[in-house]
Amino acid sequence: MAASSQQPIAAIATAPGRGGIGVVRISGPDLAPIAARLFDQPLKPRHAHYLPFKDAKGESIDAGIVLFFPAPHSYTGEDVLELQGHGGPAVMRRLLQRCLEAGREFGLRHAEPGEFTQRAFLNDRLDLAQAEAVADLIDASSEAAARSAMASLSGAFSERVNTLNDRIVHLRMLVEATLDFPEEEIDFLEKYQARATLDDIRMQLDNLVQQARQGMILREGLHVVLAGQPNVGKSSLLNALAGDEVAIVTPIAGTTRDKVVQQIHIQGVPLHIVDTAGLRETDDTVESIGIARTWAEIEKANVIIHLKDARDPAGELDAAIKQRLPAHTPVLEVHNKIDLLDPAHPSAINADNVPSLSGTQSQEAFVMSVLGISAKTGTGLDELRHKLLEIAGWNPGAESPWLARERHLIALRNAAEHLQLADEHASQADNVLDLFAEELRLAHEELCAITGQFTSDDLLGEIFSNFCIGK
After folding, report:
1. What CATH number does domain 9-127 carry, 3.40.50.2000, 3.20.20.80, 3.20.20.10, 3.30.1360.120?
2. Is the pLDDT of residue 49 over 90?
3. Does the N terminus or the C terminus of the chain have fewer Cβ atoms within 10 A?
4. ∠ CA(232), CA(234), CA(236), 5° rounding?
5. Residue ranges of domains in the chain
């Protein structure tokens, strides 16, 4: 953020729109002069004052609660002033404008997105992983995600990272000391059990990577695209999974002309289900645009559900669709409308005798499984939900107690690679300890980046710019 972190800042801290209560927050190194301009009496720390809120001419804007939190015992680590009034948008705007007018002489300015939390990080009230958890808690779309975000905010994730870092630092200390005494270098690995210690650190880090992956799935969810030719039941499946009529269903081919996105939750994991236009050759200009958008969504998918009509799952059009699906994306081949099949027919597919192609690599796409369902009756939907969680790598029995972001997972994986290289150097006959030490140092820096001990200003700007204003 380009603006000075020494200036006091102010913003509306509650969500836009009408509400019973709205909050204007001010934070800065010394807010006593600004408070004196706003109110006619001194403010007792951490005490609720019921006071009138007046404009510069003394006319009443509102009346409400004023709270003063002196540094360093506040959210940001600075002086913090909170004005709690009625939550109407016009009232909040007038109250914020009054605060900015009263503090203009003292450099008070409007806060940038995430700047209050950034100051909490810069003033050591939160580490970077905890600061990110603030935004994750606000954005949580399920109870499981909210609980995990709160665990991250309380420091559960950071504690695991810091524990690993302490062990790496201790090992680095022993290595660096040995490098100062070359005659001890040969016996170092045996004398201090460095190999055993490193193996244990790597095992703990691998476990942390797995938990971080679970945490990232819980935070971000899966992008699931329903693809197939017209009238195979994509919109019906979306409605069945969502438990609501979110997409229009008719027997007319080409009813869906554009994507319909619906977020659902399976065992707390968010899934972003995308219903798309049916794939076929057409001269209809509007439908052609919808089909082009379908292929664009397919390219972005984490999982593709290739939906077929169970009465004719081996048609030429389905074969052409399958051949064009990206090979790098997991595909669930789902045969819909099994309720319309004759159970006595030898080719009938139902939920009990669906052939398994688990892990089979075709030339066209990576087909994880073939399932039979009925979007109309609900048959097979539980198995479909289970397969989606399986592809996500979700293990309910090993649920991560905290959320994680992609940058966390990248840093953990990079640290694991450096520790692997350190192990390879330790395995060499000449015990190249200087290279061993260097890989430990790089692993340490990767882990420190998670909590913000070593973090570039550019990364900080990117992280906090995604926060809402007022937080």
Report:
1. 3.30.1360.120
2. yes
3. N
4. 100
5. 9-127, 139-217+403-465, 227-397
CB 202, CB 420: distance < 8 Å: yes
Look up the CATH number of domain 227-397. Answer: 3.40.50.300
**Cross-strand partners of 66:** 49, 83
CA 164 to chain centre: 23
- Residue carrying structure tokens 């005490």: 47
- Beta bridge pairs of residue 110: 10
Q: Which CATH architecture has domain 139-217+403-465?
A: Up-down Bundle (1.20)
Sequence-separated (6 or more) residues with CB below 8 Å from residue 359: 368
Q: What is the pLDDT of residue 157?
A: 93
Amino acid identity of residue 424, one-letter, is: E
Task: Report the alpha-carbon distance of residue 125 to residue 128 in Å, rounded.
Answer: 10
pLDDT tens profile 346-399: 444 444 443 333 334 444 566 778 889 998 898 999 999 888 888 777 766 655
Q: pTM here?
A: 0.73
Give the per-residue SS3 of the chain: CCCCCCCCEEEECCCCCCCCCEEEEEEECCCHHHHHHHCCCCCCCCCCEEEEEECCCCCEEEEEEEEEECCCCCCCCCEEEEEEECCCHHHHHHHHHHHHHHHHHHCCEECCCCHHHHHHHHCCCCCHHHHHHHHHHHHCCCHHHHHHHHHHHCCHHHHHHHHHHHHHHHHHHHHHHHHCCHHHCCCHHHHCCHHHHHHHHHHHHHHHHHHHHHHHHHHHCEEEEEECCCCCCHHHHHHHHHCCCCCCCCCCCCCCCCCEEEEEEECCEEEEEEECCCCCCCCCHHHHHHHHHHHHHHHHCCEEEEEEECCCCCCHHHHHHHHHCCCCCEEEEEEECHHHCCCCCCCCCCCCCCCCCCCEECCCCEEEEEEECCCCCCCCHHHHHHHHHHHHCCCHHHCCCCCCCHHHHHHHHHHHHHHHHHHHHHHCCCCCHHHHHHHHHHHHHHHHHHHCCCCCHHHHHHHHHCCCCCC
Residue 267, pLDDT score = 81
Answer yes or no: is pLDDT of 64 > 90.
yes
Question: What is the rounded distance in angstroms from the CA atom of residue 162 to the CA atom of residue 219?
Answer: 22
> In the beta sheet, which residues pair with residue 372?
335
Amino acid at 414: N
